């Protein structure tokens, strides 16, 4: 197999893709997802990190000591809520009019 | 009686399931100004995402409201007359292609009934449907997120909406998950879980109705919170798929040319191609990941690819079975690897990505449906009820959403006319007709598909074996020709020898088992 198509070496900046989406970001106090990051320290699998298609969760995969979560880029799919079995993720839809705005869908 | 409640029916979610319910209610004689449809998107449709192909002509049932939806709805993109199934490994791609003149084929047919599937972009389609609902006299409100349902005799201030989604302090792991709401007084919890639903609460304001229809879509907070689906299900990554897709702009001419599409005319929509792919792209990525995260060693992500042509864009994406996702692999990287596969890269060459997105898709099958579809004064329809059919080659949710909406509309109208909207009455009409409908019959018939799909072979060595075999069969290298069967055996032998992990998995017995489940598809 030639090196050029060895897909294991893939690195991609997903934030480029996210730049294409329209958002109307709500204030912090109304964040639709709240993560109790203290619970993440005991988590052995970080499945939210691997599942999230928008890289909202950054942790040991990025060399961080602590879970760093940001809701702003969330595409509201709900994957993290399903993947987390530590009871750390509280998930609600954003307030009406806020969050992601798909124009194609 | 009409004055007792603000509306006859409140529908949460203006997607296909919600819109279908609303239109059917109109058809049954419910006045438009007695129907309220709320959606959290502003504009409506802006929260929705599909792969996506709409199957069937269910929208024809609402012709009086939608008119010539095939030509007029901006989100109904191309009529699919051209279907491809593919097997991809890192290097090879084998496609099986069907072009069907009778499906509005090469030159286009004048017979609309032959056009039975469309590529769809939901943000545009839903916005248009919402317009049509308003034109038909239905109240439609966008930008409204519903926090709580109104329950008879329950003060909505006695619990927070957040209680319904926040894990409780003593939350266990996995299936033992508990919720803040579990810590409330038992009487209150019983009311929340089993009380009679009679409206919605938004920003502390109550709007009442005889029946509430939950058409929230796959990530349905309300279905979980109000215990249509058990909390156990809500926390499980089993039978949930994540779709990651991009909409890539290529321009209409380029698409017509590259995919051999009929350009469309004044009376007929343009035709298009739909492609579904079995992927074994992730071997190298998985092996890298296992080294760093040995916890999930041996696990390959089970992914399917899809590729659909829209009017001037293409929808290109993957579907990931969440339970099969190994540690160490980001879903967005899986998607990028798919895009970089040479056969896919060639199809999107020169294109510009204009939107990226992700969406959940339930793949419950019959064994993991919500345990109830109705409560006193409420029903759940569409994706929120998990009414999605998946057999590996296709995922059908939108037609099921439309159909369940239609059945709900009929049932609710008759229950309201009879003055009984209890769970029992709704079950006797809605749930009964749903279980007798093609949705459930399909799900039942394709139960073996779940087994087939859960076989990791389909996502690891089978596409590779098929691709490699085709590679050798199709190539002329000046050697003696051998029958395809012999090539297949040889490739299998080579693959087994090369990769120890395959050795057991690629045994004849497991091939036979796979074939036995596969033939039932």
Please explain how this structure is put together.
The complex is a heterodimer of chains A (105) and B (521). In chain A, 14% of the residues lie in helices and 15% in strands. Chain A is α+β, with helices and mostly antiparallel strands and 105 residues long. Chain A has a single domain (11-101), classed as Alpha-Beta Plaits. A two-stranded antiparallel sheet of chain A has the order 1-6. The longest helix of chain A is centred in the N-terminal third of the chain and has 5 residues, at 14-18. Chain A is globular and about 40 Å long. With 521 residues, chain B is α+β, with helices and mostly antiparallel strands. Chain B has three domains: 1-75 and 121-153 and 196-239 and 365-436, FAD/NAD(P)-binding domain (3-Layer(bba) Sandwich), CATH 3.50.50; 240-362, D-Amino Acid Oxidase, Chain A, domain 2 (2-Layer Sandwich); 453-518, no CATH class. Helix content of chain B is 35%, strand content 22%. Chain B has helices spanning 16-27, 63-66, 69-72, 122-135, 186-194, 221-225, 231-234, 252-258, 283-292, 331-340, 342-347, 398-417, 423-436, 438-445, 447-453, 461-474, 484-498, 500-505, 508-518, and strands spanning 7-12, 35-38, 53-55, 76-89, 93-99, 117-120, 139-141, 148-151, 197-202, 205-214, 240-249, 271-280, 303-309, 313-321, 352-362, 374-375, 378-380, 389-390, 395-396. In chain B, strands 3, 4, 5, 6, 11, 12, 13, 14 and 15 form a nine-stranded mixed beta sheet that branches. In chain B, strand 4 and strand 5 form a beta hairpin. Chain B starts with 6 loop residues before the first strand and ends with a helix. The relative contact order of chain B is 0.15. The model of chain B has no long low-confidence stretch (mean pLDDT 88). At the A-B interface, helix 1, helix 2, helix 3, strand 5 and strand 6 of A face helix 4, strand 11, helix 9, helix 10 and strand 15 of B.
């Amino acid at each position: 197999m030639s090196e050029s198509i060895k897909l294991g070496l893939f690195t991609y900046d997903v934030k480029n893709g996210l730049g294409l989406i329209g958002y109307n970001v709500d204030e912090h106090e109304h964040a639709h997802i709240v993560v109790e990051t203290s619970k993440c320290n005991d988590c052995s699998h970080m499945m939210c990190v691997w599942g999230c298609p928008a890289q909202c969760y950054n942790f040991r995969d990025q060399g961080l000591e602590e879970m760093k979560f940001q809701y702003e880029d969330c595409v509201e799919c709900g994957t993290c809520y399903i993947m987390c079995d530590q009871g750390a993720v509280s998930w609600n839809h954003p307030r009406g009019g806020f969050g992601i705005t798909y124009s194609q869908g | 009686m009409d004055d007792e409640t603000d509306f006859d029916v409140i529908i949460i979610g203006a997607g296909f399931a919600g819109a279908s319910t609303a239109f059917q209610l109109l058809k049954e004689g419910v006045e438009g100004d007695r129907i309220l449809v709320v959606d959290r998107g502003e504009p409506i449709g802006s929260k929705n995402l599909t792969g996506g192909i709409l199957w069937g002509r269910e929208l024809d049932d609402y012709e009086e409201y939608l008119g010539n939806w095939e030509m007029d709805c901006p989100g109904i993109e191309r009529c699919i007359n051209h279907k491809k199934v593919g097997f991809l490994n890192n290097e090879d791609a084998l496609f099986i292609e069907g072009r069907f003149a009778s499906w509005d084929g090469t030159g286009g047919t004048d017979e609309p009934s032959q056009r039975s599937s469309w590529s769809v972009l939901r943000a545009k389609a839903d916005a248009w449907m919402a317009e049509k609902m308003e034109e038909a006299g239905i109240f439609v409100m966008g930008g409204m997120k519903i926090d709580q349902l109104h329950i008879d005799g329950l003060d909505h201030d006695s619990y927070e909406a957040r209680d319904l989604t926040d894990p409780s302090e003593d939350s266990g792991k996995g299936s033992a998950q508990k919720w803040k709401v579990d810590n409330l007084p038992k009487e209150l919890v019983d009311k929340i879980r089993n009380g009679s639903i009679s409206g919605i609460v938004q920003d502390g304001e109550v709007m009442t109705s005889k029946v509430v229809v939950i058409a929230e879509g796959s990530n349905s907070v309300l279905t979980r919170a109000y215990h249509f689906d058990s909390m156990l299900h809500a926390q499980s990554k089993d039978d949930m798929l994540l779709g990651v897709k991009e909409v890539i702009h290529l321009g209409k001419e380029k698409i017509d040319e590259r995919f051999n599409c009929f350009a469309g005319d004044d009376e007929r929509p343009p035709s298009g191609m739909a492609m579904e792919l079995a992927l074994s792209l992730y071997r190298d990525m998985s092996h890298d990941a296992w080294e760093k995260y040995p916890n999930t060693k041996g696990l390959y992500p089970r992914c399917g690819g899809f590729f659909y042509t829209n009017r001037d864009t293409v929808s290109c994406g993957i579907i990931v079975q969440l339970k099969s996702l190994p540690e160490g692999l980001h879903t967005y990287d899986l998607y990028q690897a798919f895009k970089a596969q040479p056969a896919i890269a060639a199809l999107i060459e020169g294109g510009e990505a204009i939107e990226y997105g992700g969406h959940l898709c339930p793949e419950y099958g019959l064994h993991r449906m919500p345990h109830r579809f109705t409560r006193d004064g409420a029903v759940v329809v569409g994706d929120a009820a998990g009414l999605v059919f998946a057999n590996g080659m296709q995922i059908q949710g939108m037609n099921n959403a439309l159909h369940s909406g239609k059945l709900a509309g009929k049932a609710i109208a008759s229950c309201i006319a009879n003055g009984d909207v209890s769970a029992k009455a709704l079950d006797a009409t809605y749930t009964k007709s749903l279980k007798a409908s093609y949705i459930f019959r399909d799900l039942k018939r394709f139960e073996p598909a779940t087994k087939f799909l859960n076989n990791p072979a389909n996502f690891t060595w089978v596409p590779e074996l098929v691709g490699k075999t085709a590679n050798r069969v199709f190539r002329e290298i000046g050697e003696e020709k051998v029958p395809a069967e012999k090539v297949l055996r040889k490739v299998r032998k080579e693959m087994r020898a090369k990769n120890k992990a395959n050795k057991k998995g690629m045994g004849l017995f497991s091939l036979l088992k796979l074939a036995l489940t596969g033939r039932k598809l």
